[in-house]
């Protein structure tokens, strides 16, 4: 760990942890979506929207703190990238739920539950990792596992696309379902961006 003679603004750590905890909330709402009926999905979408707004508030708080802090715990660019990538995750998860409701999807294709399970696991790992930014200890396994999960998500996504284009679905349904599974894949990518940013920070601080 690099020795510093100057004090550092420590509230960033708490704000990153709060943002990651909110993502766990979003991933649980995604899990709820799987077995929900149409009426329940509308209510889940409302709760997801509220969680997404909470995520926006957390991101804005980080940016405000960044702009008003003379000394930061690590590079300003990395703080901005980490906050933005965490915000992207919530945006993608909220978009996926909203699309399911807007398109009035009755049954999601087999394989979507695997996508969501990957996202839920990545959310848990990310929330567990954020407090580690204080010391930069024991974070290697986190970014290795999230990268592995993102590779798994890629494979699931490709299988889902092959399933959607196998001729069993109406063309309009294919367009709707593809948009949903693509957005879930973008959420997995955003988790990897968070992990890569954490790795960059850890390397700089070592």
Automatic annotation (TrEMBL):
Gene3D superfamilies: Phosphate transport system protein phou homolog 2, domain 2 (1.20.58.220)
InterPro entries associated with the record: PhoU-like_sf (IPR038078), Put_Phosphate_transp_reg (IPR018445), UPF0111_domain (IPR052912)
Domain of life: Bacteria
Pfam families tied to this protein: PhoU_div (PF01865)
Stated family: Belongs to the UPF0111 family.
Annotated protein name in UniProt: DUF47 domain-containing protein
Organism in which the protein naturally occurs: Streptomyces halstedii
């Amino acid at each position: 760990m690099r020795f510093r003679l100057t004090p550092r603004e420590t509230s960033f750590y708490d704000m990153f942890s709060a943002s990651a905890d909110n993502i766990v909330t979003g991933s649980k709402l995604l899990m709820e979506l799987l077995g929900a009926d149409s009426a329940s999905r509308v209510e889940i979408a409302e709760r997801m929207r509220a969680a997404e707004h909470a995520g926006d508030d957390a991101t804005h708080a980080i940016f405000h703190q960044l702009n008003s802090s003379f000394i930061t715990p690590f590079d300003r660019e990395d703080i901005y990238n980490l906050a933005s990538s965490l915000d992207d995750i919530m945006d993608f998860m909220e978009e996926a739920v909203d699309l399911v409701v807007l398109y009035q999807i009755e049954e999601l294709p087999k394989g979507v539950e695997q996508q969501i399970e990957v996202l839920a696991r990545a959310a848990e790992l990310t929330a567990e990792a954020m407090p580690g930014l204080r010391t930069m200890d024991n974070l290697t396994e986190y970014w290795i596992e999230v990268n592995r999960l993102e590779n798994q998500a890629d494979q699931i996504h490709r299988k889902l696309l092959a399933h959607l284009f196998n001729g069993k679905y109406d063309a309009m349904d294919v367009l709707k379902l593809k948009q949903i599974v693509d957005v879930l894949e973008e959420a997995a990518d955003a988790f990897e961006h968070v992990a890569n940013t954490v790795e960059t920070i850890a390397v700089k601080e070592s």
